[in-house]
Design brief:
Structural class: alpha/beta
Strand content: 15-25%
Number of helices: 5
CATH superfamily of the largest domain: Metal-dependent hydrolases
Largest sheet: 6 strands, parallel
Number of domains: 2
CATH topology of the largest domain: TIM Barrel
Number of strands: 6
Radius of gyration: 16 Å
Oligomer: single chain
CATH architecture of the largest domain: Alpha-Beta Barrel
């Protein structure tokens, strides 16, 4: 471990050569490059951050497996929040396989990109969320303020769910405003 007891609870890595991350083409140039453990390690040492939680940046099982490989190779990565297709017929099998990975700690569906605000409350998706809670895994919600009432309903329907609201739900009056 590096330095203190401070943990960065949400950080991303990506490797452009993998062919993911189409969304990066619309982002500032500073983001349109590889960001890997070697880039972050000196900053962790400077700031005395002892570990991080690595969070998916692309909606693919392949990226989740890539992140889990990085976590196995780097002690400072304490956990990985990945992605699975909640509508897949194989979602429960895939979740069981990921749960076997030592540093897998949760899933993050990208709700902000789905037009239907209550998408996650469909019965078959609720079953996936219940399985996360049963396995003591986190549900990281990449949402906007419009989703907050839905998340309140989700917590009522799935008691004991560990819910993380990413980026403070991206309030419009904040730095995400155009």
């Amino acid at each position: 471990m590096i330095g203190s007891n401070m943990i960065d609870s949400h950080q991303h890595f990506w490797q452009l050569e993998r062919g993911d991350y189409a969304w990066l083409k619309q982002e500032p140039k500073v983001l349109q490059q590889n960001y890997l453990p070697a880039h972050l390690l000196p900053l962790l040492q400077q700031t005395k951050v002892c570990g991080t939680v690595l969070v998916q940046a692309e909606e693919s099982l392949e990226e989740t497996l890539f992140l889990l490989d990085l976590a196995q190779q780097n002690d400072f990565i304490l956990g990985v929040v990945g992605w699975l297709d909640f509508d897949s017929d194989r979602v429960f099998d895939e979740l069981d396989k990921l749960h076997q990975k030592p540093k897998f700690i949760g899933l993050r569906p990208v709700l902000q990109g789905i037009a239907q605000d209550d998408w996650i409350l469909a019965p078959h998706r609720l079953e996936v969320v219940r399985k996360l809670a049963d396995l003591n895994l986190s549900f990281d919600a990449l949402v906007e303020p419009r989703h907050l009432p839905v998340l309140a309903q989700l917590l009522q329907q799935v008691p004991g769910l560990r819910l993380v609201i990413d980026h403070g739900a991206k309030p419009q009056d904040c730095y995400w405003a155009d």
